[in-house]
Amino acid sequence: MMRIGQGFDVHTFGEGDHVMLGGVRVPHTHGVVAHSDGDVVLHALCDAIFGALALGDIGRHFPPSQEQWRNADSRVFLRHAAKLMREQGYTLGNADVTVICEAPKVGPHSLAMREAVAEELRCELGRISIKATTTEKLGFTGRGEGIAAQACVLLVLA
Q: Is 124 exposed, middle or buried (0-12, 13-18, 19+ CB in 10 A)?
């Protein structure tokens, strides 16, 4: 049996000198406004896994109303999603993530992101794809107001 899930996350830019993407600190002219570290890659990926398992979304598992998640490392969220995936008897077939922004440039950091995600999900690097696109200067990402990511996962019974 296979299950497919998709996820999406967005954060507005705010004060700071970096963004967290896929568990990697990426230098940037801004940070993000978020309750946790605001890692759109990991948040979208968690939502994709939770969706495939029919377990709601990241907010259900890590409510932003709870102070314990303030400034939390989003790798904790991904570890939890991976644990639930394994507990239900699934393994990751593959994950495909697209970061949507004009800046920062994702390409120079994509391998490090893939490695970090593969480590957290305990899978081979070849099962993780992280890429980026722009919106050709259209919309909030095109105006440089924020960053978004979408993710799709295939889970297979182990």
A: exposed
Q: At what angle do helices 40-52 and 74-87 cross, to 10 degrees?
A: 20
Residues 6+ apart with CB under 8 A from 103: 28, 29, 144
Residue 14: φ, ψ to 5°: -145, -155
**pTM, two decimal places:** 0.97
Q: pLDDT tens digits, residue range 22-66?
A: 999 999 999 999 999 999 999 999 999 999 999 999 999 999 888
Q: Do residues 84 and 49 make contact, with C-beta atoms less than 8 angstroms apart?
A: yes
Q: For residues 51 and 5, is the Cβ–Cβ distance under 8 A?
A: yes
Angstrom distance (rounded) from CA 147 to CA 39: 10
Phi/psi for 81 (5° steps) reads: -60, -40
Q: Identify how many contiguous H helices and E strands the chain contains and give both numbers.
A: 5, 7
Report helix, strand and coil shares of the chain as percent, to nearest 5.
Answer: 35, 35, 30
